[in-house]
Amino acid sequence: MNTHKQLLYVVAAMLFAGFFLWATNSALANETGLPHNMVKITGQEDFIHIWTLGAEGIGDEQDKLVTVDVNPNSTQYGKVVNAVSVGGRNEAHHMGFTFDRRYLWAATLDTSKIFIFDIHTDPAHPKLIRTITDFVARSGGVVGAHTVMPVKDHMLITGLSNNRDHGGRSAVVEYTADGKYIATYWMPTDDNLQGAQKTGKYADGYNYDVRALPRLDAMFTSSFTGWSNYMMDFGKMLKDEEAMKRFGNTFVVWRLSDRKPLKIFDVPGAPLEIRVAINPAHDYAFTAATLTSKLWLIYHDKEGAWQAKEVGDIGDPSKVPLPVAFTISSDDRLLWVTTFMDGNVRTYNIEDPFHPVQVYEKHIGPQVNMVSTSWDGKRLYFTSSLLSKWDKKGPDNAQFIKSFEWNGKELKERFAIDFTKEKLGRPHEMKFSSYALYGKL
Amino acid sequence: MTSNQRQPKISRPRLSLCTLLILLTALLVVPVTGSDVTRGPGDVKTGYETNTYETRSISVLNRKGAPADLMRVLQSAPRGLPPVPVPKDNPMTKQKVMLGRKLFFDRRLSLNETMSCAMCHIPEQGFTNNELATAVGIEGRTVRRNAPTIYNVAYFSHIFHDGRETRLEYQVWQPMLNVNEMANPSFGFVVEKLRHFPDYKGLFESAFAGRGPGIETIGMAIAAYERTIVSGNSAFDSWYFGKDESALSESAQRGFRLFSGKAGCMACHVIKEDYALFTDDAFHNTGLGWRFSAGEDQAEIPVQVAPGVKIMVPKKVIDSVGNPPPSDLGRYEVTQDPADRWRYKTPILRNVALTAPYMHNGVFGTLKDVVSFYNKGGIPNPGLDPSIRPLGLTDDEMADIIAFLQSLTGDNVETLVRDAFAAPIGDRR
Known about the structure:
heterodimer, A: Methylamine Dehydrogenase, Chain H, 5-stranded mixed sheet, 4-stranded antiparallel sheet, 4 helices, B: 3 domains
C-alpha cells in the first residue's frame, strides 16, 4: 500500500469518526421531539416540510407535502419551494423519519395511507417513492395512522381507530423501515390487560401518540378518540352527548423491547402529545390532556416505578383553551404549548418538572396547532390546522406557517406564509431537513 | 348578557341515592365478557357522567364470528312477527344473502374506501351507532339524522326517517351515492369496482343466474341480507303471544298496561292481534324537529370533557368551530305539504333497548329520557301531534314502561350479531 493510499484511509477513518462523534453529540440535543438517538440538525435548518391537508375549494384540494426554505441566507428564505400532491384528502396529520433520517413517512387519519418520501436525495424537492395503501388490512383492522416513530430499523405507527366501529379502540402497528408489516399490538382493554397493571379506573384501549426512552426500555402511549369523532365537524361533536363520552382517558407505559404494556394510568380528558426529557438524568415525560387543559408528568419514582401526576393547568380549563401541541427545549428548561381555541402559545419553566411555572404567553393567530423548535431553541415555527373538520370556521380559519425568533425573553416574528392565499390547504405537522445533514454542502 | 353567560361554569354532578342505585344496576347488567360483546359498544360508557365511572372495555379481537343460517327466518318468522315480506322480483337465496352480507361490510364501496354500510349500522350496536347522535359520513361529512337500526327493516313500507324510499332494493343506493355518506360518483363507478375485485369473482353470477354486478343486482343482494336481520320472540312475545305468564317481569307487565292504556303509546306503536311491529307506519310531529328548526337557541351548552366533568360552553364558542347544522323539515321534504313539517316516521320498538340514542336526531341517550319527554307532552308547537299530551306518569310508572320496552329484545340478537362478525370486512389489499 503506498503512502498516498494510507493517508487517504487515515483521512477517511478520521472523517467517519468525526461524523460518528458529531452524530452522537447531536443526539444530546432535541429537535421537536425526535427520538433521542436519531441524528439531529445541530445548526441552521434549511427546509421545513409541512404535511398539509387538502381543503375543498383551495387549489388542487389534495393533501400535499409542502417544503419551505427557512435558511435566512437563502434567496428563497420564507418561500414555498416545493409541493408534492399525493392524491385525495386523506386527513394528513403526523410524520416520522426513518432512523437514518433519509425517508419521511407521512401518515393519514382517514384513509390510513402512509406516503413515503425520499428527503435525503434533494431536501429541497422531496420525492414520493412509495405509498402504503393496505395499512388497515395488513394490521388486522387498525384505522387512522398517526405517529410514526423509528426504533432502529423498524417503524412503530400508532392507530387511532378500527375498521369495526370507527371508535377509539386501536393499536400500535410495527413495520420494517422498508415498508414490510411486522405486527399489531392492540392497546390493553379490561377484558385483556395483557399483563398490564390498571392503576386507576380506566383502561379504554384508546391510542394517540408514542414516544420512547430506550435507556429505560420504556415506551409511552396516550389516548385521543376514534374516527367518528376526529373526522366529525367539531361544533357538531361538542353538542353530541354520546360522542363526547368517546375520548381517551389513559396513558400507557410499555416495555419497549418487546412492546408489552406494563402500566395504565388515568389521565382524564384526552392526553395527546408526549414529549420525553432530553437529559439522560431526567427520567420523565410530559403529556397534555386537551379537553381538561392539564399538564401531566409521567416519571420514574425513587423505587424505579413509573408514576403519573397532574402538575398544572394550561390556561383556564373552564374556557376549554384546548392545548393541542407542545415541545420542550433541548435543555429541558422550557416547555412551549399551543392552545387552539385562543391561538396562543404559553411557555413554562419546567426546571422543576413537578411545578411548571408559566413565564411567557403570545398570541400567534386566530387558531394555532403545531409548534416545532430548532435544537438550539432560537427558532420556533407554528402551523394552524388541527383537523380538517375541527378548524375554525369563517374569518378565524387562518391557515399559516409562522416563524419566530426566541431571544430568551420574547418571540419576534420573522416570516409567515398564508396557506390559503398560496392555494395549498391546511398546514399541520412540520419536520426539518438540511443540506448539511445529507452531506450536500 | 349576564355574568353567568360570560363565565363558563364547571359542574360536577352529585350522586343521589337513586342515581347510585341505577348505576349499580347498570354495572350488574352489563358484564364485561360473554355475550356482552354482541350488545353494545366495546367500550361501555354507562355512568360516564359521574366521577364513579370505570371502563369495561372489550378488545375488538373478542368480536368472534359464528356464521348462522340466515335463511331460517324466511321459513318461519320469529314469534310476534308476521312472515317476512319478500318481493316476487327478488326471491331470497343463500348465495344472494351471503353476497349481500359481504357487500354490507365492504368499506371499499365508498369513494375513498373508508365507509361501508356497517360503519353506521354496527352489528353489536343494534345495527345502528350507539356512539353518535347523528351519523358521520365520508371524510367526516355531516349526516343530519340518527342512523336507524336495520333490525326488522324487512317490514318497512317507508324507509328513512322521512319515509322517502319505498323498497330496500332502491334504498341501498342512496347512501352509496350521497356525497355526505359514501360519496361514490356514479352507479357505474361502483359496478366497475365490483367487476374488478378478485374476491367478488363469480359471486354475482352465481347469485343471479349469470348476471354480474349492476344497479339491480347490487341493490337486490344487499336488500336480501337486510331482510334476514329479523328479530322477535322476545320476553314480551312469549308472554303476550305465547301466554307464558312467567316470561315477563311484573314491572314489565305493569309497563305494558301503561303502554297500552294510560300512556297511550300504542296509538302509534301498534300491536295487532297476532303480531306486533309497534309502529303505525305513519309520521308524527313530537316537537323535536320544530325546536331544532324554529325553537330558541341555548346560550350555553354542557360539554362533557372527562368522566364526571362537564363544562358549560357558550354557544358562540361552539359555533366558531362548527358549520351551521343542515335544516331538517322531516316528511315535508317528501310531500311538500306544510302539514308534514317536522313529522317523522314512527319507529319499530323491537330491540329498542339496543338502539340508543333515540329519535330522528339522536337527541336522547336513554329510554328514560324518551319516556320523560313524552310524559311531559313533547314540545308544544303549532303542528304537535294531537296524541302527544302530558301523561302524568309517576317515576315508578315510567320505570315500568322502560322495563316493558327492555322486554322487546329478540332472542336471536347474539346469533345475528355473531353472524355479522363472521362477515369479512372489505379493505383495500
